[in-house]
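Dear support,

We are seeing what looks like truncated structure output for some complexes. This example has two components. We would appreciate it if you could run it in full and send us the complete token output so we can diff it against ours.
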Amino acid sequence: DSGVTQTPKHLITATGQRVTLRCSPRSGDLSVYWYQQSLDQGLQFLIQYYNGEERAKGNILERFSAQQFPDLHSELNLSSLELGDSALYFCASSALRGGELFFGEGSRLTVL
Amino acid sequence: KNEVEQSPQNLTAQEGEFITINCSYSVGISALHWLQQHPGGGIVSLFMLSSGKKKHGRLIATINIQEKHSSLHITASHPRDSAVYICAVRSNTGNQFYFGTGTSLTVIP
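Here is the complete output from our reference environment:
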């Protein structure tokens, strides 16, 4: 158990809909990262937050947004969903701005 | 062009064999990570390196910053080592992460 909690574990929705994925980092970790893993593109970095502030941005679509709240949990919002958004979404946390990563079990999103 | 290249893509070994997985990258980095992903999908971080060599049990990871190359070695491989091993680098400009496509390892008893 990494100590990182992601909910929901599985989510099935339709095209055009909006979903929110939630991540609670390990106790004391200030950094939260979001990654997408799809069959055709592999793992991709989406975004990092450190202590509530956006620190790094990767290949995150404009339809996607994220935030980190004062209690350090983070949410990834995916809107106007397309079939191609079906993927595993991982959250990871680290103690520092760039330390060892601890991954959650992932949220599997299926868009029908 | 992929910023991170891994080899081999697939690897089958007999139990007890010494295994090496290679990772080359093309960007300047602040750190390199070796990750393990089991068939169930969960990801575990094995190592974070910025220089030299690290060892955890039967796993050894090395990095050569000048050559932009890292290796992951598994000594005395075991069927429970069967997994996908992924190399990831964090760039030192913009703090982006780049991932290799992974090496699928199968260790046969």
